[in-house]
Amino acid sequence: MTPNAPNPARALLERVLRTVALLTLAVALYLANRPASPPGGRDALRQWSVADVTDSTATALTTAVVGELIAAAGDTQPRRVTVDLSALPSPRARALFGAVDGADIALRWIDRTQASGIALSATTVAGHSQAIDVRVAGSTAASLPLVLRDLGGMLDSIPATRRAGWRLASMSPPLRVLIGASEARVFAREAAPTRRVMLMAEPGWESKFVAAALEEAGWQVDGSYRVSPRTAITVGAPARLDTSRYAVVVLLDSMSVDAAGVTRFVQQGGGLVLGGDALRISALSPISPARATSTRGGAAGALLTNVPQRGLEAWELVANRGAAVVRSDPSEHGHAEPVLVAQRVGAGRVVASAYRNSWRWRMEGTDDGAAEHRAWWGAVLGLAAGVPTVAVDTLADAYPGDAAPFADLVARIGGPVGADSAVAPNRTSARSAFDALMDRLRAAPGLLFMVIALTLLGEWASRRLRGNR
């Protein structure tokens, strides 16, 4: 077949197609060897102005961020986002911001919230009462009042200070503290069902008045008083030792006990108080926090002083390794004598109390003796009972949460930036149109291949139609 003489227009078209194919191939080779764009010079800063990042706006923000993630799917460099906040975000929004920051999208925020970093804690007090200790700390303006509220309304209002605290007998969660635009909240753990105390002793003044002090303090006492090796008088409805029914077992005398059952009770989370002569029960020495060596008499007339404990007969204690001396009394020899020693055994606690006849504190002391005796035994049982543990979510507990929302936001995405520095990248990272075009072409390699294939195919088809190979 004799090739036809090329039409000048067709010849020009063929040369253009061939040139485009070669240029496109050269661009593809250039992009394959071109280094990635620096992080500061990729895209103009994306900025949202969020008046109040609540759950609803968090949903809208999620949609926008997902769009950013899809757009950046083929990119080698992270995108940058700035959020302008005039109110602290909700928990959902803060979690979203943390996820965005962890997805290689550099997230910064401008603080226009006028909120301060306050933190709120609510801890259940050990013991039967299930009272709640509330603490507030942070940097606050002195001119703003601090308001404590629960679901039922306002509980207290005081001038704002760096630290404040309350002990609440009861509350309706959630518990909130407000200082101006700042708010923190916690959902205090609901009170556990009240558990009882098992008191084991021989009949006498000590067992009688210890039981009375515990009942006056609000504990429900079941007692077993041994009057002979085979006979015991019961108080209440004593049952088998079980942590679901009993919080603490109190032993006051050197007597025969089921040491294996008591040890098992403690290891499963129960509390044990060894008071007075119970420290001499050899079967319980493996779990006792202290050894009783000898007795020391009470100081004459001390029961009527401001240190009535010195008038009580007590054992001299030697704390075992791993035990903690919780309280000591001054002695006549010039050194401190341990009178309260505690140790953790398994999941429970064992407390040793040195006093042998604490009832004299109540009956022979000052007018405040009964209240002080009651407070002493309440504190001893609170130390042994502890607070029931609850399961925690380690991922959620890695951040402060609503108990300190400002600190929670900073922990997730870092501290705020100034408004001027937030918009600076728009002015300093402007790039040429060529760099922008190259980035777009790098993100679409299929487009380059299509251009090369179509131009070469068109040039080849034109030559074939006029009989030229």
Keyword list:
alpha/beta, 469 residues, Immunoglobulin-like, 4 domains, four-stranded antiparallel sheet
Number of strands: 20
User: In CATH's first tier, which class of the largest domain applies?
Assistant: Alpha Beta
Q: Uncertain runs with pLDDT below 50, 5 residues or more?
A: 39-45, 424-430
Number of helices: 11
Estimate the helix proportion, in percent: 25-40%
Strand order of the largest sheet: 13-12-11-14-15-20-19-18
CATH fold descriptor of the largest domain: Rossmann fold
Relevant CATH superfamily of the largest domain? Class I glutamine amidotransferase (GATase) domain
Mean pLDDT: 78
Rg over C-alpha atoms, rounded to the nearest angstrom: 38 Å
Structural class designation:
alpha/beta
SSE blueprint:
Elements lengths: L7 H26 L12 E5 L4 H17 L8 E6 L5 H12 L3 E6 L6 E7 L7 E7 L6 E6 L2 E7 L3 E6 L6 E5 L2 E5 L9 E6 L3 H12 L4 E8 L2 E5 L10 E6 L7 H9 L3 E5 L14 E7 L17 E6 L4 E7 L5 E10 L2 E6 L5 H5 L5 H17 L19 H9 L5 H10 L4 H10 L2 H21 L4
Parallel strand pairs: 1-2, 2-3, 11-12, 11-14, 14-15, 15-20
Antiparallel strand pairs: 4-5, 5-8, 6-7, 6-9, 9-10, 12-13, 16-17, 18-19, 19-20
Describe the structure.
Keywords: Membrane, Transmembrane, Transmembrane helix. It comes from Gemmatimonas groenlandica. The chain is α/β, with parallel strands linked by helices. The chain has four domains: 63 residues; 101 residues; 74 residues, Immunoglobulin-like; 190 residues, Rossmann fold (3-Layer(aba) Sandwich). 32% of the residues lie in helices and 27% in strands. It contains eleven helices and 20 strands. The strands form five sheets. An eight-stranded mixed beta sheet has the order 13-12-11-14-15-20-19-18. Helix 1 packs antiparallel against helix 11, helix 2 runs parallel beside helix 3 and helix 4 packs across helix 7. About 3% of the residues have low confidence.
